[in-house]
């Protein structure tokens, strides 16, 4: 059986949260009113048609731990930065506000993954760990498609030169120059090269920059702010 892959990325509009989390904040760890976050998550679940129990969240820690989930969870998966599942109709979710949300899927094998790839996690190899978990679940690299969601772009991601060099050493292709001419990072470029080297070639990048686009949450731009959600799931054809 082959599957239809569904991918969704939210914006900051249309939710119940007030400033500075206005208004569709999906992060439950940023200081927002828990009732507002719950209302926003319920609305997201309803919009997908899956229902709240079919969305699996994680408490992200900028690491490289991957969890394979085989059913709904009553609470977020702890201390995890990537979720993998083979269960149709079960959506795995990543929340971000500058980091790269990586949504991977093998529609033929029926395997999907949602990855939180910030600077630290990407440098530690969280995307590679998630890919390995997908392959162990039956996916084939040549059949995997990837969406790299909205994230801070290289033009707006200024870092010290030593940091840029260190990340480049671990994630080749990520070092760049910002619009101000200073050292910067383009994590999506580095992740693209990393996946391509591992045999994954169907890679799309959402062009939006979280810092430059006011319709998106950006911790780097605003400090205290909300989180976007990116999720992926399978539907039987």
UniProtKB/TrEMBL annotation:
Keyword terms of this UniProt record: Copper, Hydrolase, Metal-binding, Transferase, Zinc
Swiss-Prot/TrEMBL catalytic activity: adenosine + phosphate = alpha-D-ribose 1-phosphate + adenine; adenosine + H2O + H(+) = inosine + NH4(+); inosine + phosphate = alpha-D-ribose 1-phosphate + hypoxanthine; S-methyl-5'-thioadenosine + phosphate = 5-(methylsulfanyl)-alpha-D-ribose 1-phosphate + adenine
InterPro entries, per the entry: Cu_polyphenol_OxRdtase, Cu_polyphenol_OxRdtase_sf, Cytotoxic_necrot_fac-like_cat
CDD domains assigned to the protein according to its UniProt record, in alphabetical order: YfiH
Annotated family: Belongs to the purine nucleoside phosphorylase YfiH/LACC1 family.
Function: Purine nucleoside enzyme that catalyzes the phosphorolysis of adenosine and inosine nucleosides, yielding D-ribose 1-phosphate and the respective free bases, adenine and hypoxanthine. Also catalyzes the phosphorolysis of S-methyl-5'-thioadenosine into adenine and S-methyl-5-thio-alpha-D-ribose 1-phosphate. Also has adenosine deaminase activity.
Protein name: Purine nucleoside phosphorylase
Organism: Mycolicibacter acidiphilus
Gene name as annotated: pgeF
């Amino acid at each position: 059986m082959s599957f239809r892959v569904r991918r969704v990325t939210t914006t900051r509009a249309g939710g119940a949260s007030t400033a500075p989390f206005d208004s569709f904040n999906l992060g439950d760890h940023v200081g927002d009113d828990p009732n507002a976050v719950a209302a926003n998550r319920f609305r997201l679940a309803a919009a997908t048609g899956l229902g709240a129990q079919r969305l699996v969240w994680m408490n992200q820690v900028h690491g490289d731990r991957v969890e394979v989930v085989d059913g709904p969870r009553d609470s977020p998966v702890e201390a995890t930065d990537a979720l993998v599942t083979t269960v149709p109709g079960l959506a795995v979710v990543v929340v971000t506000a500058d980091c790269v949300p990586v949504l991977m899927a093998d529609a033929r094998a029926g395997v999907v993954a949602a990855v939180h790839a910030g600077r630290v996690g990407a440098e530690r190899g969280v995307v590679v760990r998630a890919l390995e978990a997908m392959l162990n679940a039956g996916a084939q690299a040549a059949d995997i498609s990837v969406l790299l969601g909205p994230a801070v772009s290289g033009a707006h991601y200024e870092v010290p030169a030593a940091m840029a060099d260190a990340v480049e050493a671990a994630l080749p292709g990520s070092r760049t120059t910002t619009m101000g001419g200073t050292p910067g990072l383009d994590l999506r470029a580095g992740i693209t090269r990393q996946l391509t080297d591992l045999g994954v070639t169907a890679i799309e990048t959402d062009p939006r920059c979280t810092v430059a686009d006011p319709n998106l949450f950006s911790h780097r731009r605003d400090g205290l702010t909300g989180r976007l959600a990116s999720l992926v799931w399978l539907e039987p054809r």
